[in-house]
Amino acid sequence: MGSSSLRPDRAEGVNALRGVVCLSVTALHFVYLLRPAGGWTDGFLLLRPGVESFFVLSGYFLAASYRERPTDVHFSVPRLVARRLLRLLVPFWVAVGLVYLLPAWRLVVPGGISYTPPAVVDLLANFACVWDLADRPLALFTFWSLATLIQLNVLWAAAFWLVRWAFLWHTDGRHHARTLVVLQALTLAGAAASWWVAFGTQAAATDWRLPHWFVYAALGSAAYWAVESARWRWIAASLAGGLLAGGWLNGTPRPVLAVASTAALVWLTVRPVRWNWFGWRAVSAVGRWSYSVYLVHGIVGYRTLTAVGRAGVPTDGGWAAVHFATAIGVSVAAGWVFYRLVELPVLKWSQGIRYRGV
After folding, report:
1. Torsion angle, CA of 24/350/151/195, rounded to 10 degrees?
2. Among 331, 340, 288, which residue's Cα sits nearest to residue 13?
3. How far is C-alpha 78 from the geometric centre of its chain's CA atoms?
4. Distance CA 233, CA 249 (A)
5. From CA 202, how far away is CA 196, in angstroms rounded?
6. Rounded Cα distance, 212 and 172, in Å
7. Measured between alpha carbons, how far is 275 from 277 in angstroms, rounded to an integer?
8. Can you give the C-alpha Rg of the chain in angstroms?
9. Cα(12)–Cα(287) distance, rounded to whole angstroms?
10. How many Å apart are CA 209 and CA 198, to the nearest integer?
11. What pLDDT, in 10s, does the model give residues 283-318?
12. Residues contacting residue 93 through CB under 8 Å, at least 6 positions apart
């Protein structure tokens, strides 16, 4: 995910939302492992803040990448795929490699949950982001959403390319707009199928993660298209209503946050904001390197929880806040280092691949 495809006045607000979602997911993973005493944790885990919103943001940026421009008579899908996969895969590979290369990885979190990485023979399945399709264990369970995001990028690009070539629109100057219309229709069809997988009677019929989450990415895409086209506002509203209905039927409040983050995305895009106070700038900064925080928080954050627990800090009462604050702070700092050393150089490298007007 990245904000380079947005106007600068829109990027700051959207980055702030990315930062909030990133910190929510990070906290959720630490709560899941630590399980401090207190009834609030059950509600926090039920609500699962940030997870659905992560895929809403992913769909939003995917739609932004494929938006139409006057130069799109020449639009290279292979170059776009190479650019996006380079941007996503190389940092992902480095993070997966760190899981295997760091010594003494076995962790025992104070909550009693232990974790040991899978055998090296599963490395290829993790590198190819097909661990669920190949029925292989993940290098680290926090990677599942990032691997699913990469699958989503590949699927989206394949659909776009096939539509272009199936109808021979690659030779027509109006091909991009018409291809996007068909892609939007396919997105709605996929959202309907995904809704059935996520909320229907066959919700547990597949181990492939993407069908469970595509509907949220479709909602994010619809949010972007709704800003660009008035007719998509009703479609986006219908998708949001379908998600809320699915959550109500299944007794889960999780879609509420997805719909709320979608509304925030639309508002921040239509009415860009620049608040000059430290908290806003700090969260927006975290949003800029959120992908790196996603990648490393499981590697360094769990170790931090282990270290704090071994130092004798209890997990009950207000002491749980010490665990969380320390682990989140270390994760954000490590994410910034990873961003500077890995993600930013790869981002600059990928930006050298031009896919428009070539």
Report:
1. 60
2. 288
3. 22
4. 24
5. 7
6. 36
7. 6
8. 20
9. 9
10. 10
11. 889 999 999 999 999 889 888 887 887 777 766 667
12. 127
